Amino acid sequence: SCMQHRLVVRNASSLQILQLYTCLDQIQYIEWSSDSQFILCAMYKRGIVQVWSLEQPDWHCKIDEGSAGLVASCWSPDGRHILNTTEFHLRITVWSLCTKSVSYIKYPKACQQGVAFTKDGRYMAVVERRDCKDFISIFVCRNWQLLRHFDTETQDLFGIEWAPNGCVLAAWDTCLEYKVLLYSLDGRLLSSFRAYEWPLGVKAIAWSPSSQFLAIGSFDEKVRILNHVTWKKITELDHPAIIANKKTIVYKEVEKSSTVDTERLSFPPTRALASSLFSTQSKYDISQVPVSLQYIKPVADRANPKVGVGMLAFSADNCFLATKNDNIPNAVWIWDIRKLKLSVVLEQLCTIQCFQWDPCQPRLAVCTGTSRVYLWSPAGCVVVRVPGEGDFQIMSLSWHSSGDSMLLLSKDNFCVCYLETEEV
């Protein structure tokens, strides 16, 4: 974690401080190397990146982009090269920590996801913009040599993402043009998908961990799933405001005030009693279908309308897909991919801020900007309140790679939630 210009490294299980580093300016971005040996700290305002070694605290590295400026920084998959994107996206500079050599990649495009690495770390794809046309360059990460360079059939390419097996690269156009393109490693166009023509198009995509499915969330409040054999649509998943299917389980969050025994009241009240007097408890009830969900009609004359499916993620075992329709901001939809049917809907009291799957088992964690975290698994739902003084509003969360703990983040604080290791 970072506080202003200080970087604090803690033990994940005990939260004891292991190292404390002081940077030259306020830290705006931090990232671990893939082997957890180094930590990158980016200070975009000054155009500087500092790298710290966990094994050798006295070792240090400073990369100064000078007048070129800095807008983004990240590690390469080998954890020994740093990729810096300069201001105005003039170039990407690849710095080697081992040989101190420098490589340059020209004309990177400023888009949502313009750089993507394969899961095995062997290849990197970069979106480029030259002469008002979109291109994709594929590099070998071992020596940063150009493997393929090809143009794309897009108006304004918005993002790219590799399939987990590293064989297919998905590229999608701006929301004004519904187009998803699928390329092979050698730059061949395998398929092109367009669901409709004129309304707003693609909002988000997600690969299944097995690379068998590509889920596409669209502004028309639907998710379309493509298969990996023909790259054709196999189903459409709707997000209606009324859940009518009796096979769908709807968990509704309900809130109630704590009841306190009047005989225990004292003045002045103890801290624990005062906390219980003014706190509310939350739990899930199973609603009887049909259920009407809270639907918000988007404002048509404003930019970035809250409409369509903008969040979607597959579970680690490929069995479930979680989605959120921005028109129905308080609901998480969980689909059974084996049956291609809606399995569960979680209806929360507040807007969904973030959800993420356990990396080891089908268990979904959800936060809504309150002091509670919500967990769903095929066995059921549970609500966990973060203990502590004050209002800890959870804005985002992140699972540990082992699945036995979770990092909960508020605006100014963080806490770690440890889960039972044995399955219930």
TrEMBL record:
Transmembrane segments: none annotated. InterPro entries: Centrosome-WD_assoc, WD40/YVTN_repeat-like_dom_sf, WD40_repeat_dom_sf, WD40_rpt. Gene3D superfamilies: YVTN repeat-like/Quinoprotein amine dehydrogenase (2.130.10.10). Pfam families: WD40. GO terms for cellular component: microtubule organizing center; MWP complex. This is WRP73 protein. It comes from Dicaeum eximium.
